[in-house]
Amino acid sequence: MKKILIIEDEISLQKTLKDALEREGYLVICASDGEEGIKLAKNEMPDLILLDLILPKKDGLEVLEELRKDSRTQDISVIVLTNFESIASVEKAIELGVVNYLVKAQYTLDEVIQKIKSEIEKLK
Which segments within the chain are labelled E, that is strand? Predict the structure, then answer.
């Protein structure tokens, strides 16, 4: 069973995504801030991380930088799902190797789930 880590501080969205992904057959773990997300990524070794950029304690780009520096987590696929769409953050996230950068307002829940499923399929 593929494992997905959701790092999202908006609890209602976190729960909605978790429920939808569990219905698709994934094991889902959640973190509500950047520090907790890094710790869970290192302890749980998920197949994919769904990462918000605007987070308490450490923002998403800091989380991404830290994960990429650690040999155990550097190759985990990361999809950014955020409302933050500055050109600089998009470029930085791509530079750090995210597989997709999704702006929340531009995608339905079903479309986000399809993007995640598509990335998971590539891992098989």
Answer: 3-7, 27-31, 48-51, 77-82, 100-103
